[in-house]
Design brief:
With 129 residues, the chain is mainly α. It contains 6 helices and no strands. The protein is globular and about 45 Å long.
C-alpha cells in the first residue's frame, strides 16, 4: 500500500501541470489513489470533445508515476484516442491499435524500430499493413 501518497498529493501534482479542470482532477486523483493502493478498478476511461485536456491529464498522471520510484509498477500505461481505434473508412482498425501500442512500448523502452519477429515487423509479410 502506498500510504504516503494521498489524493491531495496526487491532485496537487496534477493541478500544477493541468490548467483548470478542478472537478475532473479531484475525481482522477481519487481514482489514481485507489489504483495505486489496489482499491477497486484499475482503469480510467475519459470521454470528451477534442481539446478538453484528457491527454494532458493522462500525461500528468504518467509523469507522476515516473517521478516516484514507489509507483514504478504503474508506469506501463496506454494513452489512446479515438483516431487510433478507427481507420479512415470508420472501421475498427485492429492492426492500427496494435501498431500504436507497440510504438508506445518501443518509445518507453527506447527502441527505434520493432524487433524482428514482432507483429509489426511481420505485418507486411502477412498482408496486415
Amino acid at each position: 500500500m502506498n500510504a504516503s501518497l494521498m489524493p491531495q498529493d496526487i491532485y496537487d501534482h496534477l493541478a500544477s501541470r493541468v490548467l483548470g479542470q478542478e472537478a475532473a482532477l479531484r475525481a482522477i486523483s481519487v481514482a489514481v489513489y485507489k489504483h495505486v493502493n489496489r482499491i477497486g478498478g484499475a482503469r480510467i476511461l475519459m470521454i470528451g470533445n477534442s481539446g478538453t485536456g484528457k491527454t494532458t491529464i493522462m500525461k500528468a498522471i504518467e509523469e507522476l508515476y515516473s517521478s516516484r520510484e514507489s509507483l514504478a509498477a504503474f508506469r506501463a500505461m496506454t494513452i489512446m484516442n479515438a483516431r487510433t481505434l478507427l481507420n479512415e473508412a470508420g472501421d475498427v482498425d485492429t492492426f492500427g491499435i496494435f501498431r500504436s501500442l507497440e510504438s508506445r512500448v518501443a518509445a518507453m523502452l527506447g527502441e527505434k524500430r520493432p524487433p524482428p519477429g514482432s507483429a509489426l515487423a511481420d505485418g507486411k509479410r502477412h498482408g496486415l499493413s
